[in-house]
Amino acid sequence: MSYKDKKVITIGMVSELTGLTERKIRYYEERKLLFPERSKGGTRKYSFLDVERLVDIANKMEDGMQTFEIRRMEQKAIRKQEVREKMLRGQLNAAFNIRK
């Protein structure tokens, strides 16, 4: 796991880093665009990748996109990546004559 994946940043620090309000950050979580972890005490914890993601979301929103459009784009990208990985596994299996 990269340091960028570790969920260690509080919402206050994320707000400072991104310029977004805590309320806006929580809204993006409600809209299922962001998935922070929770500490035992319930504090949201974010990663550096989450911070980068929030900046990307904010830029898309500023360009006029809606949250559902952003979520749909991400889901489409995830499906494309899954198809690519499946095709690559198939090619490797065929190349090395691996049968399941």
UniProtKB/TrEMBL annotation:
Q: Name one GO molecular function term.
A: DNA-binding transcription factor activity
- Name a Pfam family for this protein: MerR_1
In terms of Gene3D superfamilies, this protein maps to: 1.10.1660.10
Ordered alphabetically, the record's keywords are: DNA-binding, Repressor, Transcription, Transcription regulation
Q: Which domain of life is it from?
A: Bacteria
Where is coiled-coil annotated?
none
Q: Which InterPro entries match?
A: DNA-bd_dom_put_sf, MerR-type_HTH_dom, MerR_fam
Residue ranges of every copy of the HTH merR-type domain listed in the record: 8-76
Q: What is the official name of this protein in its record?
A: MerR family transcriptional regulator
* Record organism: Alkalicoccobacillus plakortidis
Upper lineage: Bacteria, Bacillati, Bacillota, Bacilli, Bacillales
